[in-house]
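Hi R.,

Here's the chain you asked about this morning:
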Amino acid sequence: MDRRKFLGNSTKQLVMLNLAGLTTASAFANKSNQDKVTDKSKIIYRALGKTGIQIPIVSMGVMNANNPNLVKAAWDAGIRHFDTAWAYQNGNNEKMVGSVIRQLKIKREDVTIATKSTLEGAEKLSSRERKAIFLERFEESLNRLQMDYVDILYLHNVRRSEEINDPLILEAFKELKEKKKIRFAGFSNHNDWPDMVTEAAKRKFYDVILLSYNYAMFQDQRVNDALKAAYDAGIGLIAMKTQCKQDWYRSELPANQQKFYEGNTMNSALLKWSLRNECITTAVPGFTTYPQLDEDMAVAYNLAYTNEEDEFFKSKDIKLAIQSVCRHCGKCVDSCPHGVDIPELMRTHMYSLSYGNSLKAKQTLSHIEQGKGLDICKDCNSCSGKCQYRVPVADRINDLREIYC
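And the predicted structure, written out as tokens:
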């Protein structure tokens, strides 16, 4: 089933089947990072900051994939960077990636592997205990991948600057570099990141940052300024969530706009938009089917908009609808009298109803602090959560209540 047909189905029904176990910007004018096109494939390559790594502008976010043949097809299509994590599919995601690399007999230096070690569940422990957990989880990742090292290790899902500046976490990264178990240190962020990225640019400790970057941010100058600061500091920037896979296009667009997601227009346009910013080295779209792989890889050859994509971006309806994409800025939390962690609930909604990844949704839900999640919302008869943009907070929380309560 391709992406378009999947999105045309009743998503709630698919989620319930999964739970039951029944289904499987305009580019910156910065010419120092001009796209490099290989003579052999014509795929566009870019430099990953000051790391010395050159990779295609389209990579693979493996999180939602569970078919090793799709990973093999991605390699054959020209993808050279694979992004996984300790928490994905309870470790099976890393095992799959490592197995494919071995089966294809790929030289280790010819592929860029990134994984993520998380501190979720350890937030209230001491710094020394968090460091131990961070290192322990990373060792598990190496064992699953059956590799001596990874190219990029991220501190995953950072929400506060204190996390990336924790002296013992910085110490852990240094130790892993010295032991040659990682080549480069990074962090990933799903939340409002401009201030954090700007701070990282000044500190110049981190080599790579993985961040949400998509067309919903087209009017946010803070985003552009932060990307430029990090790029100028030599930090490699990798974009995720580029194709805004949330329900804005289903719930917000009028019927005459449905044409944009019946074919390839919407997803290819959104991926191109993110990659036309030269500060971004590559994107990690989470394709799960062969048609999606083909669609995303077509972007790696040419970032020029088609006539249909131009029409997509000129649509006032699109500009208005995309404001309902959650940016995880956190400003909605104050609108709830109980201080519920609305951004994490919106992320749960995305994984569950847009990605169809019920395992990741349940993991995200389980890591929300007691008294800040659905345990409060299930007994609330009138949601007062408000978004400064247009995210329908109450509707999405009601969706989650229907599925998980």
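The first helix runs from residue 3 to 8.

Let me know if you need anything else.
M.
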